[in-house]
Write a structure and sequence with these properties.
Length: about 200
């Protein structure tokens, strides 16, 4: 359980060097401030209700959030005119932050061993597609295979393919088109279902 006495701040009189007289100072009148422990006891139930009921946070976690809210309250340098409203708003913000962090660290379901990786569901099809594509490319003439490799795998434009193969850009465009058409025909003939 939380001990509110640990939150009391010690007050000390300003020290004066030995042999000097203390200057005459008038006391500064400040509004009476409540003890942190009393504020904690008075507002804990409300803040716990906000955290555990409104935001559906476990009570142990809500208690930790209340501690953070009071720590923030004690260290704030801004003037607080309505303490209750400030504490409620701080608890709401802390609870929202809690759920944002929890959303990023979602735990695995209890039966996670029964589930497979969604990416691995299509691995067999992907391997079959790669093998079939390699087989189709093997049927092509070397010049066609090189042209498709330069254009689709290395990302060269038709003009760059033409320079690499020492030909005109118009012929390179025609070569890319015809080679792609030929590899499609081969691929579909390999994958066609025979009846």
């Amino acid at each position: 359980m939380f001990d509110p006495n640990i939150l009391k701040m010690p007050t000390a009189a300003p020290a004066t060097p030995a042999g000097e007289e203390t200057p005459l100072t008038l006391p500064v009148l400040e509004p009476p401030q409540e003890d942190i422990g009393e504020l904690y006891v008075r507002h804990r139930t409300l803040l716990m209700h906000i955290g555990s009921r409104k935001f559906r946070i476990a009570e142990s976690e809500a208690e930790a959030l209340i501690q953070e809210v009071f720590l923030s309250f004690m260290t704030t340098t801004t003037k607080i005119s309505n303490v209750r409203s400030w504490l409620v708003a701080a608890m709401c913000n802390a609870s929202r932050h809690y759920w944002r962090v929890q959303g990023r660290t979602e735990s695995l379901p209890e039966n996670f061993a029964d589930h497979t990786d969604p990416i691995s569901d299509d691995i067999a099809e992907e391997i079959a597609r790669v093998i079939t594509m390699q087989q189709a490319l093997d049927y092509l003439q070397p010049r066609c295979r090189d042209t498709l490799y330069l254009h689709y795998y290395q990302g060269l434009s038709a003009n760059e393919v033409a320079r690499a193969q020492d030909t005109t850009s118009r012929y390179a465009e025609k070569l890319i088109h015809n080679c792609l058409k030929r590899v499609r025909e081969i691929y579909f003939s390999i994958t066609a279902v025979k009846r």
